[in-house]
Amino acid sequence: MAFSDDAVLARLSSLNESHDSIATASQWIMFHRRHAERTAQIWLQRLKDSTSTKRLSLVYLANEVTQQSKARHRPDFVLAFAPIIAEALAVAYKGAPAEIQGKLRRVVEVWADRAIFEPGIQAAIEARMQDAERSKSAPKSNFGSHASSVPVDLAGLVVHSQNLEKTSLPTKTSLGTADQDWDKLHDPSAATPSAPVYAARLNGLLRSLASAEGAVADSVKARRALISELEKLLSTNRTILAQEEQQLTTLTSRKTETEEKRREVENAIMRTLPSQESSGALRDGPTQSPGPEPERPEVEELTPPPPDRHEAGLNITDGQSIGTSDISLRQATTTEPPGPSLNGPYAGPPASGMEMLSNLASQYQSLPVSTNGSNKRRRVESDEFPDLGADDGIDADVAEMLRKDSNGA
Length: 409
What we know:
Blueprint: H1 5-13, H2 19-31, H3 36-48, H4 52-71, H5 76-93, H6 98-114, H7 119-137, H8 155-185, H9 195-271, H10 309-312, H11 329-334, H12 353-364, H13 396-408
């Protein structure tokens, strides 16, 4: 059967885990070793589109082809599978059941023991499988993938960053293989091979260089997309930053203006306060200091003051008697008995009207005491009492009463 993409796909589709199926397919593929690179690309695409069990069969086929190529010293398929084998193992390992993952690890261990691939390729294979193992054991978010927590503005940036990360490892692997092939072919100490061998090596170097070139081109494309997204994000944030700075300036100016206006209003309020504030008391607020206490009320004395004796006293000369119409015996008899004399103790009620008048005259002759402590004698003017004439000045009625009193005694 002639070589074609459909023929390769037919061989790969009919593949199963049996040794006979894998051996038959590997012999046909190795027969068309001139198309090793194209066969490897079709194999990788078929592996990505298959189930976990089918992927294991495809890995077994790659293992058989590369080991046979290594044993026959025909590195065509080793060089063709080297740039893609790490990615293929990562795809097959991720999401596979534990049994299939164990078989895949066994295949990788055989490659390491027999040195099927270069050390750099082998390390890349193991690293990709470890990454798949860590991503499997990492805890998942309650709401799905971790990408849901990424801000919307950074979603495109995350996608481009992931694409760049995917191209980084194949780029390193392809560059390592191309550099090694170049060094081997141009080693001055190595013997010059025959023309057919030299041509085969040149073809292998061309394939390595083409693979490395494609990987680097993909990396450059992914990195440019990432830089473009970063520049877009940077430009957007610069525009927003300018707007926010303008808003900050406006708010600061408004705040300063408001503070000045508030200060003016407060000063106006302080100027219009009543004068009571100067004494520490506000009209509608608590006082800072107590106000003046009210004066103590005057207490009225319980004991009435003594009579002003100088107002009632009369300056009566010796030998004169009292006899006026303003002072009648009736008024004298109706008044309360006088208290004790100022000149001595009270001796009891008078025995007769004459004695009562005599006692009254004796009280008028005493010296009154003023409020300031000084003695004051009141002079009786001559016109204060009527002239009684030459007689003793006793009214006839009074004389008759006195006579009766004396006779009764």
